[in-house]
Amino acid sequence: MGLLARMSTLLKAKTSSILERTENPSETLDYSYEKLQAMLRQVQRGIVEQVTAKHRLAQQASQLRSQSGQLDNQARQALQAGREDLARMALQRKQAAVEQLQGLDEQVASLEAEQQRLTTAEMNLRTKVEAFRTHKEVLKARYVASEAEVRIGEALHGVGEEMADVGLTIERAEQKTSQLRARAAAIDELAAAGTLNDVMGTSQSDLSLQLGQITAAQNVEDELALLKGSLGPGAEPKQLASGQ
Fold first, then answer.
1. How far apart are CA 224 and CA 234, in angstroms?
2. 127, 128, 195, 196, 205 from 199: Cα distances, Å
3. pLDDT class for 124, splitting at 50, 70, 90?
4. Could you give the angle at which helices 25-80 and 84-193 cross, rounded to 10 degrees?
5. pLDDT tens, position by position, 127-168
6. What residues contact residue 33 under an 8 Å CB cut-off, 6+ apart?
7. For residue 83, what is the DSSP state?
8. What class does CATH assign to 22-151?
9. Where are the alpha helices (DSSP H) in the chain?
10. How many Cβ atoms sit within 10 Å of the Cβ of residue 57?
11. What are the phi and psi torsion angles at 204 (to 5°)?
12. Longest dimension (CA), the chain
């Protein structure tokens, strides 16, 4: 395939793709319906023209019949007056009128047949137009419903993806909440057992204070024993006088 042929094929493909995206079936159906209605109106105008022409020829035929009757009377009156030449002339005009009348009758009959044919065609076309209108509305409704289904499907697909993200977020939140609850329970347990105070340094201070008090009492006892030893055996400590 040559370069020009490939470019032509590509252009046609692109054009078809663009038309496919931009074409609105509802607008296309309405346009087709308008074209059918225009054709129906054209046929109806043709019928009106045929009927008008038929009536015009019928009027001419009626005039010729009236003229033929008058010429017949004139020929009879001329014979009665002894004017055979005038009678012959009147009959000649009558014959010409009769011939024209025959041609007009044939044309009227032809127009009548054409009118019947066009009337039948107009009825068939009108039936098809009405059927197409009904079918068009059904197709348009189905197209709108299909569009709605596509939009709903796309929306549901987006909601599904969003819900997946929301599910992950909820899962992470629940994990963090569980960790915080476990930590809070551990803190409560340590606080109840006093271990938390040891960890925080509070119990250690109390213990040091108690140990210090015990040590101080022991020192007092040791010093008291030393004083007793320095006084010697049998010595009794003197009672301090009142006020000393």
1. 16
2. 98, 96, 6, 5, 12
3. very high
4. 170
5. 999 999 999 888 888 888 888 888 887 777 766 666 666 677
6. 129, 132, 133, 136
7. -
8. mainly alpha
9. 3-22, 25-80, 84-193, 195-200, 202-231
10. 19
11. -65, -35
12. 214
Residue type, 147: E
* CB-based contact 75:94 (threshold 8 Å): yes
Q: CB under 8 Å, gap of 24 or more: what pairs does 175-182 form? A: none
Q: What single string gives the DSSP state of each residue in 35-66?
A: HHHHHHHHHHHHHHHHHHHHHHHHHHHHHHHH
Structure tokens at 39: 């054709």
State the residue for tokens 């960790």.
179
Q: What is the pTM of this model?
A: 0.48
Q: Which residues, in sequence order, are CB contacts of 17 under 8 Å at separation 6+?
A: none
